[in-house]
Amino acid sequence: MIRFEALQKVWPDGTCAISDVSLEIPQGQFCVILGPSGAGKSTLLRAVNGLMRPSAGRVLIDDVELNIATQRQLRQRVAMIHQHFNLTNRMSVASNVLSGLLPTVSTVRALSGWFRPEHRQKACHLLDRVGLSPEHLKRRAGDLSGGQQQRVGIARAFMLDPEVVLADEPVASLDPKISRDILTLIRDAARERNATVLCSLHQIDLAREFGDRIVGMRDGRVVFDGSPADFTDDRVQALYEGARWEDPPAADDAGTQPLPALAAS
Ligand code: ADP
Ligand code: MG
To answer: Which ligand is nearest to the CA of 36?
Structure first.
């Protein structure tokens, strides 16, 4: 379970990215954080793995407060999937997946490339699970398509059997068909382990399709919190009121363009 208690983040330049957010996300829930660009989605997610230190309020994972003393231990239970995959492009697919163990393996061992046989086996199993064949293991990660790179990112995230998976716009760089495949993989892998997922998205249709719950954010505040069925067109409009459509970002997978992003005016 993740709990945000009166969380606030004011950046040094005075930008208030998060204003008084209190939420409780039960274990095993797939919770979508939806909102226009600049709403505070990434800032909120980064509070859960200690990459963002709040100005006020607390984040708790299973009733343990995230702070300097607990950060190291809690981080091992939280994995992250990134919009731009964040793989080491010149390293092999296998090494990238194994790097998911880094919070628990010494840097010396990781640099030497020595991992236990059971860890190698687990990496192979996870790659198979996300639909990559053994022939991909030795390929340079940077040579894969965007969709394949995100599959590697998912396998890496699940190496430590995380209790919490943070996915920050995991499909923003992918076309709609691949986006569904990727979100299905994240959802299914999380369900198998009863992991909690906090997934930021800007696509309304994907939020409705994949979220057990949708938390709509705007200007650092929660303006909607409910089930996809409750997220009616009126509520969508309220969330994006004043927003404008902007040009869609370029897709890095072959095929159609991604759905247009919504941006605050
Ligand atoms: P989202 O992920 O929903 O697009 P962010 O969490 O990235 O939103 O940003 C929320 C607000 O905080 C925005 O106004 C953004 O410009 C600001 N912001 C994010 N990171 C920083 C930073 N490191 N320094 C200053 N302002 C920031
Ligand atoms: Mg963001």
So the answer is: 1
Q: Ligand 2: distance of its center to the CA of 76 in Å?
A: 23
**Spatial CA neighbour of 165 closest among 29, 9, 40:** 29
Domains of the chain, each with CATH number or no CATH: 2-25+33-199+208-222 (3.40.50.300)
Asked if residue 11 has its Cβ within 6 Å of ligand 1, the reply is yes
| Torsion region of 220: left, alpha or beta (phi above 0 gives left; psi -120 to 50 gives alpha) | left
> Which residues contact residue 240 at a Cβ distance below 8 angstroms, ignoring those fewer than 6 apart?
36, 218, 262
Residues 225/29, Cβ–Cβ less than 8 Å:
no
Calculate how far, in angstroms, residue 226's C-alpha sits from the geometric centre of ligand 1: 24
Give tens-digit pLDDT for 55-98. 999 999 999 999 999 998 998 999 999 999 999 999 999 999 99
**Ion ligand 2 residues within 5 Å by Cβ:** 41-42
- Asked whether 17 lines ligand 1 (CB < 6 A), one says yes
Q: What is the mean pLDDT of residues 249-257?
A: 39
CB 34 within 8 A of CB 217: yes
Contact criterion met (CB below 8 Å) for 35 and 202: yes
